[in-house]
Structures are given as C-alpha cells and as structure tokens.
Amino acid sequence: MTLYRILYCSRSELADSPAAGAEEIRQILAKSRANNARDDITGGLFFSNQCFAQVLEGPAEKVEETFERIQCDMRHRDVTVLEAGPIATRDFPAWSMAFTGSTDASAFGQAVLSAAFSGQTQAGDKLLDILRSVVVREDEWLANEAA
Length: 147
Ligand SMILES: Cc1cc2nc3c(=O)[nH]c(=O)nc-3n(C[C@H](O)[C@H](O)[C@H](O)COP(=O)(O)O)c2cc1C
Description:
Layout lengths: L2 E10 L5 H22 L2 E7 L2 E9 H12 L4 E11 L11 E4 L4 H12 L5 H24 L1
Helix pairs in contact: 3-4
The chain binds flavin mononucleotide (FMN).
Flavin mononucleotide binds next to helix 1, strand 3 and helix 2.
C-alpha cells in the first residue's frame, strides 16, 4: 500500500459567534474522527484566526476521496494545496485527527498561513512543523495525565 499525504490551508467560513463556531469545529472533528478511523486516515487539523491547515495521511485512494469531500465543504473556502505526494511513514500514527485551536502559536500560525496563501514555498514545511509540535505536546500531556 502506498502511503500518501496532503497538506492544505483554507479560510474558514464558520459561524461568527464563538460558541456557534466552536460547535461547528466539534462537528467537523467528530465526523472526521469517525470517517478517518474507518478509512485508515490519520492527521492533524490546525485552526487559527479564521484559517485552517490540515494534514491527511493514509492510503492514496482514501486520502484523495476524503480531500474531494473536504474541498466541497462550505465551512471553508480558498482551499490551497501546499503539498501532496507519497510519504515513507506517518507523522500522526495515533491520531484519526489531532486538533489544535491554537492560542500560544496563533501569531506564528497566522504568519505562516499568510505566507502559505501567498504562495511561499517554505510555508508547507513550517505548517507541518506546527502540526507535529502540537501532537507531541498532546502526547506528553496524555502521558502526564496517565502517570
Ligand atoms: C476544515 C475541515 C476539515 C475536515 N476534515 C475532515 C476529515 O479529516 N475527514 C472527513 O471525513 N471529513 C472531514 N471534513 C468534513 C467533510 O468536509 C465532509 O463534511 C464529511 O467528510 C462528510 O462525511 P459523510 O459523507 O460521512 O457525511 C472536514 C471539513 C472541514 C471544513
């Protein structure tokens, strides 16, 4: 099986009120986690200042199918692919969809996202770093809670 990865960013069209927006995020995550577990897809979703960045990894065909659905979703727009191609190993093996609605990284995340939308080539790598660091922190937190 070929492992495949897509990284994209987009501008959110979530409801204006924070409570309604949070509820939409909850629904996106619940649906994503159920579908992705079924499809052997893992990844991370980053939400910061009206923008999303998401990485999807898994069997090529499933990743493509999922991304087709995501692209048609009216809860965001300007879906911009930053990277797509085969990978050797997963970065998020344990996460059907890790999530961060970043507060501490939001200024940095926002800067990286503007770079991504304006077509700067390094932006994809930086976004992947952000997503990976988030998951490491979440793993550490879970390990501490379990200890
Ligand atoms: C930012 C964003 C990220 C999403 N990520 C996923 C995802 O990882 N997996 C998924 O199945 N759906 C994801 N969705 C939801 C899809 O767009 C779509 O609503 C869903 O896959 C439909 O699933 P269903 O056909 O089972 O109802 C995402 C939507 C948004 C707006």
